[in-house]
Amino acid sequence: MAITKNGSTYSQAANAIWSTSWTSGSFAVAAGTNRILVVSVAIYLATGITEPGVTAVKWGGSGGAALTKVTSQVYDPAATKEKEASLWYLVNPTAQTSTLYLTFANSINEVAVAATVWDGAAQTTPFTGANGSQSGWTTTHSVIVSSATDSLVIDSIFAGGAITCSQTQDANVATANSVFGQSNKAGATSVTMTWTSANSNHAMVAASLAPYVDASHINIALAVGGS
């Protein structure tokens, strides 16, 4: 079953929040088949982030369903740790119009999010293979992810200046000090996700989302093949 986008990506950036929690604006999650809500998060704190910077993401406000973290990466992990990019997911999210609720290890200055619902995604182990991550001081940012046909690679980046990508862009929003992006690309044995930015400091992560496989079809095929 192919992975397809359900509706449009919701994205938002906020400045000067100076809090250990934050609630996004409202957006709709629609009904669908074998759905998954994937949320990219980026945070900024000039004095340095205590890892993990994002401690929780929930769908449905502060009392909502908790998302599972896929991966995260800070910029300049040996020194300032001023940026963090991360990916989170929730299988079969409640179809409703609501908000994301985030909590942080520090009182964060800036935050950006992108939320996308995908149909046709694996429901038991949605993200498979080795995740990719990168941080540093370059104007071209690439992460290579092991994936597969019918899978979908999703990334998240937080960089110091205007950004462009060679994949399908889902989000591109600016905070006061950085620009946040999310993109996707069809799966293959090895997938390279690439962004360029006007300013070189960045944190980037990527992961492979697996498609839903109908186990009953596999069992029928095995039965026919073995008869």
Question: What can you tell me about this protein's structure?
Answer:
The strands form 5 sheets. Strands 1-11-4-8-7 form a 5-stranded antiparallel β-sheet, with no helix packed on it. A 5-stranded antiparallel β-sheet has the order 12-19-14-17-16, with no helix packed on it. It is mainly β. The model is unreliable at 218-224 (pLDDT under 50). It is 5% helix and 59% strand. The protein is globular. β7 and β8 (83-91) form a beta hairpin. The chain starts with a strand and ends with a helix. It has one helix at residues 215-226, and strands at 4-14, 19-23, 27-29, 36-44, 54-59, 65-66, 68-74, 83-91, 96-98, 100-108, 110-119, 127-137, 140-146, 152-159, 163-165, 168-174, 179-186, 190-197, 201-209. It has one domain. The longest helix is centred in the last third of the chain and has 12 residues, at 215-226.
Strand order of the largest sheet: 1-11-4-8-7
Unreliable residue runs: 218-224
Largest β-sheet summary: 5 strands, antiparallel
Helix content: under 10%
Taking all residues together, what is the mean pLDDT?
Answer: 92
Which series of helices and strands comes N to C?
Answer: EEEEEEEEEEEEEEEEEEEH
Quaternary arrangement of the chains shown? single chain
Distance between the termini: 26 Å
Shape: globular
Rg measurement, Å: 18 Å
Annotation, overall tally of beta strands: 19
Number of domains: 1
Helical/strand content category? mainly beta
